[in-house]
Design brief:
Elements lengths: L1 H5 L4 H5 L1 H7 L3 E8 L2 E8 L5 E5 L5 E6 H11 L9 H7 L1 E2 L20 H11 L4 H25 L8 H23 L1 H6 L2 H38 L9 H6 L5 H52 L5 H68 L7 E4 L4 E4 L6 H18 L5 E3 L9 H11 L6 E3 L9 H9 L19
Parallel strand pairs: 5-8, 8-9
Antiparallel strand pairs: 1-2, 2-3, 3-4, 6-7
Helix pairs in contact: 7-13, 8-13, 10-12, 13-14, 15-16
Length: about 500
Amino acid sequence: MLVDFAMGGETFLTHNSDVVNELGHHSYFFQFQFDGVDHFFRRDTDKGDLVFVCDHEWKIGRTLNIKEYCDLLRQYYRISDLGLSFRTVASLFTRVWGKENLVTDRPLDIHRKQRAEDALIFVLKLFDKYHELVVLDGELKRVDSEKTALRRAFRENIVPRIGKAQFKKNKLLSQQTTDELEDIKANLARYATNIREITNREVSDIKEQKDLLLKAMAAVDGRLRRLQTSLVDSKHVKSRWFEALKEFFPDVAADRIALVEEFHSDIAKILKREILATEKRLVGESDRINAELRGLDDRLNMLLKNVENPTIIVDRVFELSNLKGIAERENEYYEKEMALNTRVKELRSDLEEMKKIELSVISSEINDVLRSYAERIYGEGRKSPYLSFSKTNYKYEIFEDTGTGKAFANLIFFDWAIFALCPVPFLIHDSLLFKNVENEAVARMMEIYATLGRQTFIAIDEIKKYGEIAEQLIRRHTIVQLSNDAVLYVKDWRK
């Protein structure tokens, strides 16, 4: 946890709060060496969000917030080009008791609530494959944003939105208006001397519209008459009508009769409310149709009144041009919406396919390395763990072997594989990873740790049980050795 703290981690301050409780707030001093140059830093437990840059005598020079410090480490460890923060990479491969990344079959999850899709993006970035998807993803976001903007314009009635049926009608209308405009253009002289021909065309159009409106009006009037008849005829049963019944049947229950009357009365009230509401809506519809009919009559009267007026040609051309423009504008937005929908689907499909291919390549590379490590530790022919990716998730499993020791060994193998294939800055493996692994396997693991070629921190107990060779190897690389007498701090608070 202290190594993780020096690397910008936060968990030490929460999971190991007993240290501050026992010792009070204190400082940690740590030194890095990059390209032969030493770098000195200090971090205090009471100012965990800050890191102090020091000189070789530990005098404070400047102060960095934790993000600036981690960005500096990302630069020093040369992982800036991956598009990942330093802590995102470092946290996953710091497998220490108290962290949430110790689930053996979810080695790409930094914490328990991590989304599987984020793990897929992480591994694509880690293998430097995400850049190949960024351009396609950017185009998808741009087109999707354009699609969203158009839908918002439709919703706010800034531009008209139509369906497929109206699109076809508009195409027909556009063609008809174009034909008539071309006809007027070709025969302008003839029309100038015979205005009645154009007028007759408009009169015919108006009559067709009136016929449709009159049919609609007849239907509305019919429904209104039936509703009004229902209102007049609506009656409910009166109690006095049951008096004659009681003369013949003296034992009839009067309270039951009253309940029937009350129920019938309530139903009648509900029906009456609904009839009145429908009547109001139909009257409104009737008024609208009448207004449209009056408008058509006014237009018809104007046409017939000015039948010999040459300006009617200009009016007709304007009207046709306006109708054509509206139809073509509506169709333009419809075609744009359809084109954007198609493009978004294509880009999503292309992105998913490219992602699938890249993840397949990555899993193949990792599985090859996993197989080689499993054979080095357990011998040839032993089953190795297997990583697979789906569209939105991943699996890490070993078939027919669910033992705890093998599960933690597989977690170690996974980190080694990533370490071998990617620029992960370091590994931190706590002693709990080795507790249930066979002693011989742990002994062989020490040999691999010693040859990884990059910084690796491990904690391990009871080293004698792993054999003389492994013990010598561990002692040769030991930096800190603790015991009951040699504790980490100046105070032992176990007692």
